[in-house]
Amino acid sequence: YKAQKGMWLTPVELFFPHYSNILANFVSESITATNNNNLATGHDGKFEIVELGGGRGTNAIALLNHLSECHSEVYERLHRYSIFDA
User: Fold this and answer.
1) pLDDT tens digits, residue range 20-42?
2) Reduced to 3 states, what is the DSSP secondary structure of residue 52?
């Protein structure tokens, strides 16, 4: 905790990369289930991830790394990852 710079630390920074890996697994399971239904109706299987309050991008880096390493078939269908921060 002391090694992290900044006043505000989120679970993403405190439990790096495990917290983001869990989110990546959830994304993979959700997209796979959704796309199994959508592919039958003609959708191309592409999807977008939108992160609100992404800060330094720590979650994006870990989540995308985990998707590419462990769920490559889902990672290949990712159209865009957008971060919106205030």
Assistant:
1) 999 999 999 999 988 776 655 55
2) strand
